[in-house]
Design a protein that fits this description.
The longest helix is centred in the last third of the chain and has 18 residues. The protein starts with 5 loop residues before the first strand and ends in a 5-residue tail after the last helix. The strands form 2 sheets. Strands 3-2-1-4-5-6-7 form a 7-stranded parallel beta sheet, with helices on both faces. It has a 6-stranded parallel beta sheet with strand order 10-9-8-11-12-13, sandwiched between helices. The chain is built from 15 helices and 13 strands. The protein has 2 domains: about 180 residues, Glycogen Phosphorylase B (Rossmann fold, 3-Layer(aba) Sandwich), CATH 3.40.50; about 170 residues, 3-Layer(aba) Sandwich (Rossmann fold). Strand 4, helix 4 and strand 5 form a beta-alpha-beta unit. By secondary structure, the chain is of the alpha/beta class. It is elongated and about 65 Å long.
Length: about 375
């Protein structure tokens, strides 16, 4: 069976976004000699991401982010000019735009990454369920499937675990000497978090835990990497906490994965998460990890073996896990070692790319059937 010509569509191709990084991993391992891969974004593409995708031979497209019809018309033109077999969309807007843009020969798939409902509100849920009733839904975890699957869906449902590249061989982690440039003592105990500053990522949980621990752990420092709509308000909240000089906002960083090396612990306090790329990157970096028990995080971390888990939105439980790790360097080492070994096999980019390619290839007969029936678009 031939490899299909695919266009993957997301809202943006930002440096810190989990979905763009998954796209990039797929692009790096996809066989471009067989078929051209395309990636589309509604918003302007970050220069660093443009360069990274260019190195893989992927063709990038900016559709514009004004409403639905303008990007749908741009996508329709791309589908026609490049003979795209299928569009793989990762949000409700991307999915509906793709449905509007597709022709009978172009299949549309919905690749659902998020636990917090990407489809919220009765009108959007109804639109999704009607549009997707015969389409293939790709889920990144069992928990994501439970949240978004529905009884009336007649299309295929498949689970594909995300793959994450092991960057250590080519981009070694920073060591503790790099802390000084960030205003962090080499001897500090550093807890870090990489995430977009949005409500469900729960940065406030780490701030609350720090507030509880700052006096008893005078060497504790927090490092936040990323940006987003709550970035400034979170900084304002941090400034009101005693010990605020030990809370560091680094913004978006192209070297985010290397910065894991300055951390003793990686924390993920979000109250809903799919297969978090940031957590898997921390596993590969051999960090001790503490995560909430929300969403699909329990599908990534084995509590007590590859990391520690706290009750979602329980500040005292999170603080207690941080204290336990601060007091036990041997536990941090053993958790990190086991986490890396699990991540290397379970989230292998090769396995991920082969599995997703297999799913996409399986759509070609369905695409031809849709073309014959003339029902490939809304």
């Amino acid at each position: 069976m031939r490899t299909p010509k695919v266009l993957m569509l997301h809202r943006d191709l930002s440096l810190q976004g989990g979905v763009p990084r998954v796209f990039l991993t797929f692009a790096r391992h996809y066989d471009h000699r067989v078929s051209q891969l395309h990636v589309g974004s509604f918003q302007p593409i970050a220069p660093e991401m443009s360069e990274a995708f260019a190195q893989t031979g992927t063709t990038l497209h900016e559709l514009g982010d004004t409403g639905y019809m303008k990007p749908a018309l741009a996508l329709h033109k791309i589908i026609k000019e490049h003979s795209i077999d299928m569009v793989v969309a990762t949000s409700l807007k991307a999915y509906l735009v793709a449905k509007l843009a597709s022709n009978p020969a172009c299949r549309v798939l919905f690749w659902i990454h998020a636990i917090p409902l990407v489809i919220s509100g009765p009108m959007k849920v109804a639109a999704f369920r009607w549009a997707a009733r015969h389409d293939t839904l790709i889920f990144i975890a069992k928990t994501v499937q439970r949240v978004h699957g529905y009884p009336g869906h007649k299309g295929r449902e498949v689970i594909v675990l995300n793959g994450v590249d092991d960057s250590l061989p080519t981009a070694p982690l920073y060591d503790h000497s790099q802390r000084e440039a960030l205003g962090i003592p080499r001897s500090a105990f550093v807890v870090g978090y990489t995430a977009e500053f949005i409500a469900w990522k729960q940065h406030k949980m780490l701030l609350a835990a720090f507030s509880q621990l700052a006096k008893d752990l005078p060497d504790l420092h927090l490092v936040f990497i990323g940006t987003g709509e709550l970035w400034e308000s979170t900084q304002a909240q941090a400034r009101a906490i005693p010990g605020a000089e030990r809370i560091h906002f680094l913004g978006p960083r192209p070297d985010a994965k290397r910065l894991l090396g300055i951390m003793d612990v990686y924390a993920q306090p979000s109250n809903g998460e799919g297969i978090s790329i940031a957590v898997i990157e921390a596993m590969l970096a051999q960090r001790a990890i503490v995560v909430s028990d929300a969403g699909a995080l329990p599908e990534i971390i084995d509590n007590g073996s590859t990391g520690l888990m706290f009750r979602v939105e329980d500040v005292a439980d999170l603080a207690g896990k941080i204290v336990a790790l601060a007091q036990d360097p041997e536990m941090r080492r053993s958790l990190g070692e086991r986490a890396r070994q699990v991540a290397l096999t379970r989230f292998s980019p090769k396995n991920f790319t082969e599995r997703l390619t297999e799913v996409l290839e399986g759509e070609l007969p369905a695409s031809r059937a849709a073309s014959a029936a003339g029902n490939g678009s809304l």
